[in-house]
Description:
By secondary structure, this protein is of the alpha+beta class. It has helices at residues 41-58, 101-107, 111-115, 143-159, 182-194, 224-231, 262-269, and strands spanning 29-30, 33-37, 80-86, 92-99, 116-117, 128-136, 164-172, 174-175, 178-179, 204-205, 235-236, 241-243, 248-256. Strands 1, 2, 3, 4, 6, 7, 11, 12 and 13 form a nine-stranded mixed sheet that branches. Strands 5-10 form a two-stranded antiparallel sheet.
Amino acid sequence: xxxxxxxxxxxxxxSLPRGSLHRPDAAGARGSVExxxxxxxxxxxxxxxxxxxxxxxxxxxRLKPTLPGHDIDVFDDYCEHLLxxxxxxxxxxxxxxxxxxxxxxxxxxTYSDTEFDLTRLRSLRARMVELGRSCVxxxxxxxxxxxxxxxxxxxxxxxxxxxxxxxxxxxxxxHNGVVSGDMAASIxxxxxxxxxxxxxxxxxxxxxxxxxxxxxxxxxEPPALIKGYLRLGAKVLGxxxxxxxxxxxxxxxxxxxxxxxxxxxxxxLGA
Length: 271
């Protein structure tokens, strides 16, 4: 996957967060975890180390060797980084990165644009953020961490008058010890029947997974993140892309604040 051109404006990750995107009390303790937006480079580095541990060490992804033990790409300096820490150890155990519309215009693209043709989302971009590099430490994959992340994201969206999120939901290519796309093809068959976005929002993968040549009949549940997104009212935007560096098939998902089911709206927004 090709890198985008370097920006012409100076960047300073140390200055994050930018402007008034976050209020002072926008995060805090939530039970046994603490949620916060990265404000300094060392906090961004902690998120990048967790990403490396999950994506490279655990999943076997091929990452660019920018800094040993870190997952870093060209989009990181433009993104807001959301962190979940263990309240006792202060270890970063969960993270998302968020690319705002203003920063997407500044870099000239989203990460999603490198994997998909997003032409049909043109009308949404002014108030659309991209979620990416979502991961949770292997020892903390319970509902509390992801709910803490989603709660902070919902607050961020409403506070900044943003209404649409797009993000990647990855499906591992490894199934029963064999690398194949059968699991991804089977999950795509399931979700397209019940959660496919209207045609006006559908996107096309630049490197499609050849689902027509795969066995899509496996009786298999989607990964937890995909199931969680669907419970929040998300739509699948089209067929999966093949991501060879991450050894996964990627489904592009779209979530809109207006589509949040009432119980989640009350939980996250108090509305």
